[in-house]
Amino acid sequence: MAEQLWKGRFSQAVDSRVNDFNSSIRFDQRMARQDITGSMANAAMLGAQGIIPESDTEAILKGLEGILADLESGVLAIDPEAEDIHTFVEQTLTARIGDAGKRLHTGRSRNDQVALDIRLTLRDMAHGLEEQLADLIDTLTAKAEEYAGAVMPGYTHLQRAQPITFGHHLMAYVWMLLRDLDRFEDAVARMDAQCPLGSGALAGTTYPLDRRRTAEALGFAAPCQNSLDGVSDRDFCIELASAMSICMMHLSRLSEEIILWSSWEFKFIELDDAFTTGSSIMPQKKNPDVTELIRGKTGRVYGDLNTLLVMMKGLPLAYNKDMQEDKEAIFDAVDTLALCLRTVTPMLATMRALPENMRAAAAKGFINATDCADYLTKKGMPFRDAYKLTGSLVAWCIGHNTVLEALTLEQFREFSPVFDEGIFDAIDLVNCTEGRISEGGPCAASVHRQVEQAAAQLAQWKEKHHG
Ligand code: ARG
Questions:
Q1: What Rg, from alpha-carbon coordinates, does the chain have?
Q2: Cα separation of 363 and 385, whole Å?
Q3: What is the pLDDT of residues 163-209, one digit of tens each?
Q4: What's the confidence (pLDDT) of residue 7?
Q5: Which of 241, 243, 244, 232 is nearest to 312 (CA)?
Q6: What DSSP string runs through 143-181?
Q7: C-beta 258 within 6 A of ligand 1
Q8: Where do the domains of the chain lie, and which CATH numbers do they carry?
Protein backbone atom coordinates (compact mmCIF):
# COMPACT_ATOMS: atom_id res chain seq x y z
CA MET A 1 0.00 0.00 0.00
CA ALA A 2 2.74 2.43 0.96
CA GLU A 3 4.63 1.86 -2.29
CA GLN A 4 5.53 4.92 -4.34
CA LEU A 5 3.77 5.56 -7.65
CA TRP A 6 7.16 6.06 -9.32
CA LYS A 7 8.83 2.79 -8.24
CA GLY A 8 9.50 1.55 -11.84
CA ARG A 9 13.01 2.77 -12.61
CA PHE A 10 14.57 2.15 -9.20
CA SER A 11 16.37 -1.03 -8.25
CA GLN A 12 16.99 -0.05 -4.62
CA ALA A 13 14.51 1.00 -1.95
CA VAL A 14 14.65 4.65 -0.95
CA ASP A 15 16.19 5.34 2.44
CA SER A 16 13.43 5.53 5.05
CA ARG A 17 14.70 8.93 6.15
CA VAL A 18 14.28 10.26 2.63
CA ASN A 19 10.79 8.80 2.50
CA ASP A 20 9.85 10.56 5.71
CA PHE A 21 11.42 13.78 4.51
CA ASN A 22 9.64 13.60 1.17
CA SER A 23 6.22 12.65 2.43
CA SER A 24 3.48 15.27 2.50
CA ILE A 25 0.53 13.10 3.59
CA ARG A 26 0.62 14.61 7.08
CA PHE A 27 -0.62 17.94 5.73
CA ASP A 28 -1.96 17.30 2.23
CA GLN A 29 -4.56 14.82 3.49
CA ARG A 30 -6.68 17.91 4.12
CA MET A 31 -7.17 18.03 0.34
CA ALA A 32 -8.67 14.53 0.14
CA ARG A 33 -12.14 15.65 -0.90
CA GLN A 34 -10.82 18.10 -3.48
CA ASP A 35 -8.37 15.51 -4.83
CA ILE A 36 -11.27 13.11 -5.37
CA THR A 37 -13.44 15.82 -6.97
CA GLY A 38 -10.63 16.66 -9.38
CA SER A 39 -10.05 13.01 -10.22
CA MET A 40 -13.75 12.49 -10.92
CA ALA A 41 -13.76 15.36 -13.41
CA ASN A 42 -10.63 13.94 -15.01
CA ALA A 43 -12.07 10.43 -15.28
CA ALA A 44 -15.35 11.69 -16.76
CA MET A 45 -13.45 13.67 -19.39
CA LEU A 46 -11.08 10.75 -20.24
CA GLY A 47 -14.11 8.52 -20.86
CA ALA A 48 -16.03 11.11 -22.89
CA GLN A 49 -12.96 11.67 -25.07
CA GLY A 50 -12.52 7.94 -25.62
CA ILE A 51 -9.08 8.03 -23.99
CA ILE A 52 -10.15 5.32 -21.55
CA PRO A 53 -13.15 2.96 -21.91
CA GLU A 54 -16.47 4.38 -20.64
CA SER A 55 -16.83 1.28 -18.47
CA ASP A 56 -13.58 2.20 -16.71
CA THR A 57 -14.82 5.74 -16.18
CA GLU A 58 -17.94 4.35 -14.54
CA ALA A 59 -15.91 2.06 -12.29
CA ILE A 60 -13.56 4.92 -11.36
CA LEU A 61 -16.42 7.30 -10.55
CA LYS A 62 -18.17 4.71 -8.39
CA GLY A 63 -14.91 3.78 -6.73
CA LEU A 64 -14.01 7.41 -5.95
CA GLU A 65 -17.50 8.09 -4.61
CA GLY A 66 -17.09 5.10 -2.31
CA ILE A 67 -13.69 6.29 -1.10
CA LEU A 68 -15.04 9.76 -0.36
CA ALA A 69 -18.05 8.36 1.51
CA ASP A 70 -15.84 6.00 3.51
CA LEU A 71 -13.37 8.74 4.38
CA GLU A 72 -16.17 11.00 5.52
CA SER A 73 -17.87 8.31 7.58
CA GLY A 74 -14.56 7.26 9.08
CA VAL A 75 -14.73 3.70 7.68
CA LEU A 76 -11.57 4.39 5.69
CA ALA A 77 -8.55 5.97 7.37
CA ILE A 78 -5.77 7.80 5.54
CA ASP A 79 -2.64 5.69 5.46
CA PRO A 80 0.11 7.77 7.11
CA GLU A 81 2.71 5.75 5.19
CA ALA A 82 1.43 6.91 1.79
CA GLU A 83 3.68 9.46 0.11
CA ASP A 84 0.92 11.98 -0.44
CA ILE A 85 -2.86 12.26 -0.79
CA HIS A 86 -2.72 11.70 -4.55
CA THR A 87 -0.88 8.41 -4.07
CA PHE A 88 -3.25 7.33 -1.32
CA VAL A 89 -6.41 7.96 -3.35
CA GLU A 90 -5.09 6.30 -6.50
CA GLN A 91 -3.75 3.25 -4.69
CA THR A 92 -6.92 2.82 -2.65
CA LEU A 93 -8.94 3.08 -5.84
CA THR A 94 -6.86 0.44 -7.60
CA ALA A 95 -7.03 -1.84 -4.57
CA ARG A 96 -10.80 -1.54 -4.72
CA ILE A 97 -11.60 -1.66 -8.45
CA GLY A 98 -8.52 -3.23 -10.05
CA ASP A 99 -7.06 -2.23 -13.43
CA ALA A 100 -9.57 0.54 -14.15
CA GLY A 101 -8.03 2.43 -11.23
CA LYS A 102 -4.67 2.36 -12.97
CA ARG A 103 -6.16 4.30 -15.90
CA LEU A 104 -7.19 7.32 -13.77
CA HIS A 105 -3.82 9.04 -14.07
CA THR A 106 -3.73 8.90 -17.90
CA GLY A 107 -2.45 12.20 -19.29
CA ARG A 108 -2.14 13.67 -15.82
CA SER A 109 0.78 14.33 -13.48
CA ARG A 110 0.81 14.97 -9.76
CA ASN A 111 2.14 18.38 -10.75
CA ASP A 112 -1.07 19.57 -12.41
CA GLN A 113 -3.07 17.51 -9.92
CA VAL A 114 -1.61 19.25 -6.87
CA ALA A 115 -1.88 22.66 -8.53
CA LEU A 116 -5.58 21.92 -8.99
CA ASP A 117 -6.12 20.48 -5.52
CA ILE A 118 -4.68 23.49 -3.71
CA ARG A 119 -6.87 25.83 -5.73
CA LEU A 120 -10.00 23.82 -4.96
CA THR A 121 -9.07 23.57 -1.29
CA LEU A 122 -8.22 27.24 -0.84
CA ARG A 123 -11.39 28.24 -2.64
CA ASP A 124 -13.38 26.35 0.01
CA MET A 125 -11.26 27.66 2.87
CA ALA A 126 -11.52 31.25 1.64
CA HIS A 127 -15.30 30.97 1.55
CA GLY A 128 -15.24 29.76 5.14
CA LEU A 129 -13.12 32.76 6.15
CA GLU A 130 -15.48 35.10 4.33
CA GLU A 131 -18.42 33.74 6.30
CA GLN A 132 -16.56 34.35 9.55
CA LEU A 133 -15.55 37.81 8.44
CA ALA A 134 -19.14 38.66 7.55
CA ASP A 135 -20.21 37.67 11.09
CA LEU A 136 -17.54 39.90 12.57
CA ILE A 137 -18.62 42.80 10.38
CA ASP A 138 -22.24 42.30 11.48
CA THR A 139 -21.18 42.24 15.12
CA LEU A 140 -19.04 45.38 14.91
CA THR A 141 -21.68 47.26 12.94
CA ALA A 142 -24.29 46.48 15.60
CA LYS A 143 -21.92 47.77 18.31
CA ALA A 144 -21.25 50.92 16.31
CA GLU A 145 -24.98 51.54 16.03
CA GLU A 146 -25.39 51.00 19.77
CA TYR A 147 -22.71 53.61 20.57
CA ALA A 148 -23.35 55.97 17.66
CA GLY A 149 -23.56 59.01 19.93
CA ALA A 150 -21.06 58.04 22.66
CA VAL A 151 -18.52 60.89 22.77
CA MET A 152 -14.91 59.86 23.23
CA PRO A 153 -11.57 61.49 22.58
CA GLY A 154 -10.11 60.74 19.17
CA TYR A 155 -6.32 60.36 19.14
CA THR A 156 -3.29 61.15 17.05
CA HIS A 157 0.14 60.14 18.37
CA LEU A 158 -1.93 58.51 21.17
CA GLN A 159 -2.53 62.06 22.43
CA ARG A 160 -6.11 63.26 22.86
CA ALA A 161 -6.83 65.23 19.71
CA GLN A 162 -10.45 65.92 18.76
CA PRO A 163 -13.82 64.61 19.86
CA ILE A 164 -15.31 61.63 18.03
CA THR A 165 -17.87 58.97 18.87
CA PHE A 166 -17.22 55.37 19.81
CA GLY A 167 -19.55 54.34 16.98
CA HIS A 168 -17.36 56.21 14.50
CA HIS A 169 -14.23 54.56 15.86
CA LEU A 170 -15.75 51.08 15.50
CA MET A 171 -17.01 51.83 11.99
CA ALA A 172 -13.43 52.59 10.93
CA TYR A 173 -12.73 48.88 11.53
CA VAL A 174 -15.88 47.84 9.70
CA TRP A 175 -14.60 49.59 6.58
CA MET A 176 -11.22 47.87 6.91
CA LEU A 177 -12.89 44.48 7.24
CA LEU A 178 -15.17 45.14 4.27
CA ARG A 179 -12.06 45.78 2.20
CA ASP A 180 -10.68 42.48 3.51
CA LEU A 181 -13.83 40.73 2.36
CA ASP A 182 -13.38 42.32 -1.02
CA ARG A 183 -9.76 41.18 -1.17
CA PHE A 184 -10.79 37.57 -0.39
CA GLU A 185 -13.40 37.72 -3.16
CA ASP A 186 -10.81 39.09 -5.52
CA ALA A 187 -8.21 36.43 -4.62
CA VAL A 188 -10.77 33.67 -5.10
CA ALA A 189 -11.94 35.13 -8.41
CA ARG A 190 -8.40 34.90 -9.78
CA MET A 191 -7.92 31.45 -8.23
CA ASP A 192 -11.06 30.33 -10.10
CA ALA A 193 -10.11 31.93 -13.39
CA GLN A 194 -7.74 29.30 -14.75
CA CYS A 195 -7.72 25.54 -14.32
CA PRO A 196 -4.24 23.93 -14.36
CA LEU A 197 -5.55 20.38 -14.94
CA GLY A 198 -4.26 19.04 -18.26
CA SER A 199 -0.92 20.83 -17.97
CA GLY A 200 0.58 17.41 -17.24
CA ALA A 201 4.01 17.31 -15.62
CA LEU A 202 5.00 20.52 -17.41
CA ALA A 203 4.54 20.02 -21.15
CA GLY A 204 0.92 19.05 -21.62
CA THR A 205 0.22 15.66 -23.15
CA THR A 206 -0.33 13.84 -26.44
CA TYR A 207 -3.81 12.65 -25.40
CA PRO A 208 -6.76 14.55 -26.84
CA LEU A 209 -7.86 16.03 -23.50
CA ASP A 210 -10.90 18.27 -23.30
CA ARG A 211 -9.55 20.83 -20.89
CA ARG A 212 -12.55 23.07 -21.27
CA ARG A 213 -14.77 20.33 -19.99
CA THR A 214 -12.73 19.67 -16.83
CA ALA A 215 -12.28 23.39 -16.20
CA GLU A 216 -16.01 23.97 -16.40
CA ALA A 217 -16.90 20.89 -14.34
CA LEU A 218 -14.62 22.12 -11.57
CA GLY A 219 -16.00 25.67 -11.55
CA PHE A 220 -13.18 27.45 -13.39
CA ALA A 221 -13.71 30.09 -16.05
CA ALA A 222 -11.24 28.44 -18.46
CA PRO A 223 -8.20 26.17 -18.69
CA CYS A 224 -4.87 27.94 -18.15
CA GLN A 225 -3.13 28.93 -21.39
CA ASN A 226 0.37 27.74 -20.57
CA SER A 227 1.26 24.35 -19.11
CA LEU A 228 4.51 25.57 -17.52
CA ASP A 229 2.68 28.39 -15.77
CA GLY A 230 -0.15 25.99 -14.93
CA VAL A 231 2.01 23.67 -12.83
CA SER A 232 4.34 26.24 -11.33
CA ASP A 233 2.05 29.16 -10.48
CA ARG A 234 1.45 29.75 -6.79
CA ASP A 235 0.43 33.40 -7.09
CA PHE A 236 -3.00 32.49 -5.77
CA CYS A 237 -1.47 31.20 -2.51
CA ILE A 238 0.54 34.37 -2.14
CA GLU A 239 -2.44 36.57 -2.91
CA LEU A 240 -4.59 34.83 -0.35
CA ALA A 241 -1.79 34.91 2.23
CA SER A 242 -1.38 38.60 1.55
CA ALA A 243 -5.12 39.26 1.97
CA MET A 244 -5.00 37.24 5.20
CA SER A 245 -1.96 39.18 6.44
CA ILE A 246 -3.75 42.48 5.87
CA CYS A 247 -6.82 41.17 7.65
CA MET A 248 -4.68 40.02 10.60
CA MET A 249 -3.06 43.45 10.68
CA HIS A 250 -6.53 44.98 11.08
CA LEU A 251 -7.49 42.53 13.82
CA SER A 252 -4.19 43.24 15.52
CA ARG A 253 -4.72 47.00 15.51
CA LEU A 254 -8.20 46.55 16.95
CA SER A 255 -6.75 44.16 19.53
CA GLU A 256 -4.15 46.71 20.54
CA GLU A 257 -6.88 49.30 21.09
CA ILE A 258 -8.95 46.86 23.12
CA ILE A 259 -5.92 46.13 25.27
CA LEU A 260 -5.48 49.85 25.89
CA TRP A 261 -9.19 50.55 26.39
CA SER A 262 -9.62 47.76 28.93
CA SER A 263 -6.69 49.00 31.08
CA TRP A 264 -7.33 51.07 34.21
CA GLU A 265 -5.54 53.93 32.46
CA PHE A 266 -8.38 54.16 29.92
CA LYS A 267 -11.28 52.02 31.19
CA PHE A 268 -13.31 52.77 28.07
CA ILE A 269 -14.61 49.21 27.80
CA GLU A 270 -15.26 46.15 29.89
CA LEU A 271 -14.68 42.72 28.36
CA ASP A 272 -16.97 39.93 29.42
CA ASP A 273 -15.39 37.65 32.06
CA ALA A 274 -15.84 34.72 29.69
CA PHE A 275 -13.38 36.32 27.26
CA THR A 276 -10.63 37.27 29.70
CA THR A 277 -8.27 35.34 31.93
CA GLY A 278 -6.83 35.75 35.41
CA SER A 279 -3.38 35.64 36.91
CA SER A 280 -2.08 32.76 39.03
CA ILE A 281 -0.55 35.20 41.53
CA MET A 282 -2.32 38.56 41.24
CA PRO A 283 -5.91 38.07 42.37
CA GLN A 284 -7.11 41.38 40.94
CA LYS A 285 -6.03 40.69 37.35
CA LYS A 286 -8.38 40.43 34.39
CA ASN A 287 -6.25 40.05 31.30
CA PRO A 288 -7.28 40.55 27.66
CA ASP A 289 -5.39 37.44 26.51
CA VAL A 290 -7.52 36.90 23.42
CA THR A 291 -6.50 40.22 21.94
CA GLU A 292 -2.86 39.73 22.90
CA LEU A 293 -2.84 36.35 21.16
CA ILE A 294 -4.33 37.88 18.04
CA ARG A 295 -1.64 40.55 18.08
CA GLY A 296 0.98 37.82 18.54
CA LYS A 297 -0.40 35.50 15.88
CA THR A 298 -0.35 38.29 13.31
CA GLY A 299 3.42 37.87 13.06
CA ARG A 300 2.91 34.19 12.42
CA VAL A 301 0.63 34.86 9.42
CA TYR A 302 3.12 37.41 8.05
CA GLY A 303 5.71 34.64 8.43
CA ASP A 304 3.58 32.31 6.32
CA LEU A 305 3.32 34.94 3.59
CA ASN A 306 7.07 35.42 3.73
CA THR A 307 7.64 31.65 3.53
CA LEU A 308 5.64 31.54 0.29
CA LEU A 309 7.35 34.54 -1.26
CA VAL A 310 10.83 33.29 -0.44
CA MET A 311 9.97 29.74 -1.47
CA MET A 312 9.04 30.93 -4.97
CA LYS A 313 11.60 33.61 -5.67
CA GLY A 314 14.42 31.42 -6.94
CA LEU A 315 12.55 28.61 -8.66
CA PRO A 316 13.27 27.88 -12.31
CA LEU A 317 10.28 26.66 -14.33
CA ALA A 318 8.43 24.47 -13.93
CA TYR A 319 7.57 22.34 -10.86
CA ASN A 320 10.15 22.02 -8.09
CA LYS A 321 9.74 20.06 -4.91
CA ASP A 322 10.28 23.24 -2.90
CA MET A 323 6.69 24.00 -3.79
CA GLN A 324 5.43 21.24 -1.52
CA GLU A 325 6.15 23.72 1.28
CA ASP A 326 3.27 25.90 0.08
CA LYS A 327 0.60 23.85 1.84
CA GLU A 328 1.89 23.99 5.40
CA ALA A 329 2.36 27.74 5.14
CA ILE A 330 -0.96 28.59 3.57
CA PHE A 331 -2.97 26.16 5.74
CA ASP A 332 -1.32 27.57 8.85
CA ALA A 333 -2.32 31.08 7.81
CA VAL A 334 -5.91 29.98 7.11
CA ASP A 335 -6.15 28.09 10.41
CA THR A 336 -4.69 30.98 12.36
CA LEU A 337 -7.03 33.58 10.89
CA ALA A 338 -10.02 31.25 11.34
CA LEU A 339 -9.08 30.69 14.98
CA CYS A 340 -8.75 34.43 15.61
CA LEU A 341 -12.07 35.26 13.93
CA ARG A 342 -13.84 32.50 15.81
CA THR A 343 -12.80 34.01 19.14
CA VAL A 344 -12.76 37.73 18.48
CA THR A 345 -16.34 37.92 17.22
CA PRO A 346 -18.09 36.67 20.38
CA MET A 347 -15.59 38.64 22.46
CA LEU A 348 -16.66 41.84 20.71
CA ALA A 349 -20.34 40.89 20.82
CA THR A 350 -20.15 40.69 24.62
CA MET A 351 -17.90 43.74 25.08
CA ARG A 352 -19.50 46.61 27.01
CA ALA A 353 -18.47 50.22 26.44
CA LEU A 354 -18.29 52.66 29.37
CA PRO A 355 -19.46 55.91 27.74
CA GLU A 356 -19.24 57.88 30.97
CA ASN A 357 -15.50 57.15 31.19
CA MET A 358 -14.98 58.02 27.53
CA ARG A 359 -16.85 61.25 28.14
CA ALA A 360 -14.75 62.06 31.20
CA ALA A 361 -11.56 61.46 29.21
CA ALA A 362 -12.90 63.67 26.45
CA ALA A 363 -13.37 66.46 28.98
CA LYS A 364 -9.64 66.49 29.69
CA GLY A 365 -6.93 67.09 27.16
CA PHE A 366 -8.38 70.18 25.45
CA ILE A 367 -9.86 68.23 22.56
CA ASN A 368 -12.20 71.18 21.92
CA ALA A 369 -9.29 73.58 21.30
CA THR A 370 -9.71 73.30 17.52
CA ASP A 371 -13.39 74.13 17.97
CA CYS A 372 -12.46 77.24 19.98
CA ALA A 373 -10.12 78.33 17.17
CA ASP A 374 -12.82 77.55 14.58
CA TYR A 375 -15.28 79.66 16.59
CA LEU A 376 -12.95 82.67 16.43
CA THR A 377 -12.31 82.04 12.73
CA LYS A 378 -16.03 82.00 12.01
CA LYS A 379 -16.18 85.38 13.78
CA GLY A 380 -13.72 86.77 11.25
CA MET A 381 -10.33 86.22 12.88
CA PRO A 382 -7.75 84.67 10.49
CA PHE A 383 -7.34 80.96 11.41
CA ARG A 384 -3.62 81.28 12.18
CA ASP A 385 -4.31 84.10 14.71
CA ALA A 386 -7.21 82.15 16.19
CA TYR A 387 -4.93 79.11 16.50
CA LYS A 388 -2.28 81.14 18.34
CA LEU A 389 -4.75 82.81 20.67
CA THR A 390 -6.35 79.47 21.55
CA GLY A 391 -2.89 78.10 22.23
CA SER A 392 -2.26 80.79 24.82
CA LEU A 393 -5.70 80.10 26.34
CA VAL A 394 -4.79 76.40 26.66
CA ALA A 395 -1.44 77.29 28.22
CA TRP A 396 -3.19 79.56 30.71
CA CYS A 397 -5.67 76.79 31.58
CA ILE A 398 -2.84 74.29 32.12
CA GLY A 399 -1.07 76.79 34.35
CA HIS A 400 -4.23 77.30 36.38
CA ASN A 401 -5.26 73.66 36.37
CA THR A 402 -8.55 74.26 34.62
CA VAL A 403 -10.23 73.58 31.26
CA LEU A 404 -11.71 75.81 28.55
CA GLU A 405 -15.33 74.95 29.50
CA ALA A 406 -14.73 76.23 33.06
CA LEU A 407 -13.68 79.75 32.03
CA THR A 408 -16.08 82.69 32.40
CA LEU A 409 -16.91 84.96 29.49
CA GLU A 410 -14.85 87.71 31.19
CA GLN A 411 -11.84 85.44 31.30
CA PHE A 412 -12.28 84.62 27.60
CA ARG A 413 -12.62 88.32 26.77
CA GLU A 414 -9.33 89.10 28.51
CA PHE A 415 -7.77 87.16 25.63
CA SER A 416 -9.92 88.70 22.90
CA PRO A 417 -12.98 90.96 22.72
CA VAL A 418 -14.23 88.77 19.87
CA PHE A 419 -15.57 86.21 22.39
CA ASP A 420 -19.27 86.32 23.26
CA GLU A 421 -21.77 83.90 24.89
CA GLY A 422 -21.62 81.70 21.77
CA ILE A 423 -18.23 80.33 22.84
CA PHE A 424 -19.83 78.02 25.41
CA ASP A 425 -21.96 76.26 22.81
CA ALA A 426 -19.03 76.14 20.44
CA ILE A 427 -16.78 74.25 22.86
CA ASP A 428 -19.46 72.03 24.38
CA LEU A 429 -18.25 68.47 23.76
CA VAL A 430 -21.51 67.11 22.44
CA ASN A 431 -21.89 70.12 20.15
CA CYS A 432 -18.28 69.76 19.01
CA THR A 433 -18.95 66.16 18.08
CA GLU A 434 -22.39 66.63 16.59
CA GLY A 435 -21.17 69.70 14.73
CA ARG A 436 -18.70 67.60 12.78
CA ILE A 437 -21.20 67.07 10.01
CA SER A 438 -18.75 66.66 7.14
CA GLU A 439 -19.29 63.49 5.13
CA GLY A 440 -17.53 60.55 6.77
CA GLY A 441 -17.30 62.46 10.04
CA PRO A 442 -17.92 61.23 13.61
CA CYS A 443 -21.38 62.68 14.48
CA ALA A 444 -24.15 60.23 15.34
CA ALA A 445 -26.00 60.89 12.07
CA SER A 446 -22.85 60.05 10.13
CA VAL A 447 -22.41 56.83 12.11
CA HIS A 448 -26.01 55.81 11.30
CA ARG A 449 -25.37 56.58 7.64
CA GLN A 450 -22.16 54.51 7.67
CA VAL A 451 -23.98 51.62 9.35
CA GLU A 452 -26.54 51.66 6.54
CA GLN A 453 -23.89 51.84 3.82
CA ALA A 454 -21.86 49.02 5.34
CA ALA A 455 -24.96 46.86 5.77
CA ALA A 456 -25.84 47.43 2.10
CA GLN A 457 -22.36 46.36 1.04
CA LEU A 458 -22.54 43.26 3.19
CA ALA A 459 -26.03 42.49 1.85
CA GLN A 460 -24.56 42.38 -1.66
CA TRP A 461 -22.03 39.82 -0.53
CA LYS A 462 -24.76 37.79 1.23
CA GLU A 463 -26.93 37.91 -1.89
CA LYS A 464 -24.06 36.55 -3.97
CA HIS A 465 -23.24 33.71 -1.58
CA HIS A 466 -26.58 32.82 -0.04
CA GLY A 467 -29.03 34.00 -2.74
N1 ARG B 1 3.38 16.38 -2.69
C2 ARG B 1 3.73 17.10 -3.86
C3 ARG B 1 3.52 18.60 -3.64
O4 ARG B 1 2.84 18.93 -2.74
C5 ARG B 1 2.88 16.65 -5.02
C6 ARG B 1 3.52 16.85 -6.35
C7 ARG B 1 4.63 15.88 -6.51
N8 ARG B 1 5.25 16.02 -7.77
C9 ARG B 1 6.48 15.57 -7.99
N10 ARG B 1 6.96 15.78 -9.17
N11 ARG B 1 7.18 14.96 -7.09
O12 ARG B 1 4.05 19.41 -4.32
A1: 30
A2: 24
A3: 999 999 999 999 999 999 999 999 999 999 999 999 999 999 999 99
A4: 76
A5: 232
A6: HHHHTTT-EEEEEETTEEEEEEEHHHHHHHHHHHHHHHH
A7: no
A8: 7-106 (1.10.275.10), 111-142+163-209+218-358 (1.20.200.10), 369-427 (1.10.40.30)
H or E element at residue 423: helix 422-427
pLDDT reported for residue 3:
78
Task: Report the candidate in 64, 75, 65, 81 with the shortest Cα–Cα distance to residue 29.
Answer: 81
Q: What is the pLDDT of residue 278?
A: 85
Determine whether the shortest distance from the Cβ of 84 to ligand 1 is under 6 A.
Answer: yes
Quote the pLDDT of residue 73.
Answer: 98
- Tell how far the Cα of 83 is from the centroid of ligand 1, in angstroms: 9
pLDDT at 11: 79
**Does the C-beta of 323 come closer than 6 Å to ligand 1?**
yes
**Is 100's C-beta closer than 6 angstroms to any atom of ligand 1?**
no
Whose Cα sits closest to atom 2 in ligand 1? 324
Residues of the chain with pLDDT under 50: 1
The set of catalytic residues is: 157, 279
Classify 450 as helix, strand or coil. Answer: helix
